């Protein structure tokens, strides 16, 4: 702990000067009794440690007694021994302290002495350390702080500056200010959060749009791949069968034209595939309900030019020609002009229906649909 003495000890504080030459123990700067002495290695002079530090802080490097550079060293026993024998009065003797202390005990005592002067924070008067607490507890000029409203007031003014009503009003004012500040902070945080949310929303929106485009592109690629795979597994390899007259692509399973597929319901498709067991009623249903309109041309179909957009049109075209030739052979040579009479047309329709379903006409095989179970998928 630092000494209460900024410079050496005053000679009048020494209580046993007899037999001691105090002038030999004086600091050559402050001329008081040495306090925490140090010596110059060059000139052997003695100084208080505080005095020589102050001397050197002014930018000097030379010894106060000569021109040599100051080099510090510890004091010899010739100085330390006489100093240790001195009896020193407390620096607060004027305040009432009666302690007489050895040289080495002075610093510790003075930092704890109960007679240290302390100033009252209210009236600013000085009192000893032992008395200051008693004085402060009763000083009317001491300022106090309310634990509830935090108002600082002097004790003597409490009846005017800190009544119960004033305390409540101040608490309410502080609460309102605090609430307003918290509201401003919340609004600021909300604005920041909203900006961050909007930015994040835009990022997510852009990402979603990109994913949608990628998904659409991938869907097209997958659909194309699936179509290609399906085509590879549903059409016969060229050269496996003889080419059809309709130029259509043959089914890999049955060898019939697979350029058309059925779009109707499963029950109807099952009924069509059972054509070998048809009776007259079934054949009438085929014609009257236009079941053949349920067949649709596949993408990429190579089946030749059609008279109509249904496979029956393609079949009908071939069988009408065949029917006309058959009727012509049954009539006289001079009656060739009436080959398309109403009776002939009825015969043609019956021949077309029977030939398409049963395949028993001499030219029907080239125009027979694929009736495989899976020919309902485009």
From TrEMBL:
Limits of the RING-type domain: 27-67
InterPro entries, sorted: Znf_RING (IPR001841), Znf_RING/FYVE/PHD (IPR013083), Znf_SIAH (IPR013010)
Keywords: Metal-binding, Zinc, Zinc-finger
Protein's name according to its UniProt entry: Uncharacterized protein
Domain of life: Eukaryota
Annotated PANTHER family: TNF RECEPTOR ASSOCIATED FACTOR (PTHR10131), TNF RECEPTOR-ASSOCIATED FACTOR 4 (PTHR10131:SF94)
Species the sequence originates in: Adineta steineri
Pfam families listed in its UniProt record: zf-C3HC4_2 (PF13923)
GO molecular function annotations of the record: zinc ion binding
